[in-house]
């Protein structure tokens, strides 16, 4: 998927009220979706820094989901 199409798809996904996003490490940096209820990692990264990058933006501390 080219960059323009990927951006369009993420923008459409962000508008939905409910959904499931399955992705690889290629898209974990820079994504920001509001009101994420759960983050499930299938394969944990061996480096703590990479693990924190994976979960940090979507699993925001002290944020409640409505």
Descriptive notes:
With 66 residues, the chain is mainly alpha-helical. It is 33% helix and 0% strand. The chain has helices at 3-15, 48-56.
Offer a few descriptive terms.
about 70 residues, mainly alpha, single chain
Short overview:
This protein is mainly alpha-helical and 66 residues long.
Q: Supply the number of structural domains.
A: 1
Strands, total number = 0
What is the CA–CA distance across the termini?
Answer: 32 Å
Query: Helix share of residues?
Result: 25-40%
Which helices and strands, and how do they pair?
Layout: H1 3-15, H2 48-56
């Amino acid at each position: 998927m080219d960059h323009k199409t990927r951006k369009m798809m993420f923008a459409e996904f962000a508008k939905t009220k409910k959904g499931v996003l399955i992705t690889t490490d290629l898209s974990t940096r820079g994504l920001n979706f509001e009101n994420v209820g759960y983050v499930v990692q299938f394969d944990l990264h061996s480096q703590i820094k990479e693990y924190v990058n994976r979960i940090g933006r979507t699993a925001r501390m002290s944020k409640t989901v409505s």
